[in-house]
Amino acid sequence: MLQVTNIHKKYGSLEVLKGIDLMIAAGEVVSIVGASGAGKSTLLHILGTLDTADSGEVFFDGNNIARLNATDMAKFRNRHIGFIFQFHNLLPEFTALENVCLPGFLAGRTEKEVRQRAEELLQMLGLSHRLDHKPSEMSGGEQQRTAVARALINSPKIIFADEPSGNLDSKNAQELHDIFFRLRDEFNQTFVIVTHNEQLAGMADRTLVMKDGQIVID
Ligand SMILES: Nc1ncnc2c1ncn2[C@@H]1O[C@H](COP(=O)(O)OP(=O)(O)OP(=O)(O)O)[C@@H](O)[C@H]1O
């Protein structure tokens, strides 16, 4: 599904990624681990089209997305990629349901269809009693599960998660990890997850270890 070749990235004179090659198959849960500053988030952002590499190629299902212009890239991201961040990044003035619906509306889908899917997702994630709650009215675990529903609203090919359980206590972290694997088992959902959480890395199908801008163990 995802293939990247020879990705390089510099910030000023700092070489952050030094030739990354990687293939990820549909239905894989891949974790990326490594010391702080190894380049994990930078790689994740490039894979997720939030940032661009200085050189190298990123192919999704054989399409070279590095060649898309900014508008088409944004459209591609909205339709095919989901993101989950350490801090849920939900919009504070919107309810859980509205937050989940938003990327669906941006994709140009009908209100009825998007609302129905959002309600189904929130129900699946145990949040049917929180539809009308704003983020500040929910627990950390509930906020993060809402962010998972938002990531799923457009049925993305792949979900990128950057320290998704980094801000959760161990019970909520465990619940979140179980959700990822349930989504993989039931819907063949693909995940690439940057994490310092050893339990999550240990559960993944593959663990990539990064060091100084390179993948040193796959
Ligand atoms: N926008 C930027 N401008 C300049 N330097 C940056 C930028 N983003 C990241 N860096 C630097 O690039 C290096 C890699 O950062 P990155 O966030 O990818 O590491 P990481 O492995 O995800 O670390 P952590 O585990 O601490 O999140 C670091 O030295 C960081 O300071």
TrEMBL record:
<dbReference type="GO" id="GO:0044874">
    <property type="term" value="P:lipoprotein localization to outer membrane"/>
</dbReference>
<dbReference type="GO" id="GO:0022857">
    <property type="term" value="F:transmembrane transporter activity"/>
</dbReference>
<feature type="domain" description="ABC transporter">
    <location>
        <begin position="2"/>
        <end position="217"/>
    </location>
</feature>
<protein>
    <submittedName>
        <fullName>ABC transporter ATP-binding protein</fullName>
    </submittedName>
</protein>
<dbReference type="GO" id="GO:0005886">
    <property type="term" value="C:plasma membrane"/>
</dbReference>
<keyword id="KW-1278">Translocase</keyword>
<keyword id="KW-0547">Nucleotide-binding</keyword>
<dbReference type="InterPro" id="IPR027417">
    <property type="entry name" value="P-loop_NTPase"/>
</dbReference>
<dbReference type="GO" id="GO:0016887">
    <property type="term" value="F:ATP hydrolysis activity"/>
</dbReference>
<dbReference type="InterPro" id="IPR003593">
    <property type="entry name" value="AAA+_ATPase"/>
</dbReference>
<dbReference type="InterPro" id="IPR015854">
    <property type="entry name" value="ABC_transpr_LolD-like"/>
</dbReference>
<dbReference type="Pfam" id="PF00005">
    <property type="entry name" value="ABC_tran"/>
</dbReference>
<keyword id="KW-0472">Membrane</keyword>
<keyword id="KW-0067">ATP-binding</keyword>
<dbReference type="InterPro" id="IPR003439">
    <property type="entry name" value="ABC_transporter-like_ATP-bd"/>
</dbReference>
<keyword id="KW-1003">Cell membrane</keyword>
<dbReference type="InterPro" id="IPR017911">
    <property type="entry name" value="MacB-like_ATP-bd"/>
</dbReference>
<dbReference type="GO" id="GO:0005524">
    <property type="term" value="F:ATP binding"/>
</dbReference>
<dbReference type="GO" id="GO:0089705">
    <property type="term" value="P:protein localization to outer membrane"/>
</dbReference>
<keyword id="KW-0813">Transport</keyword>
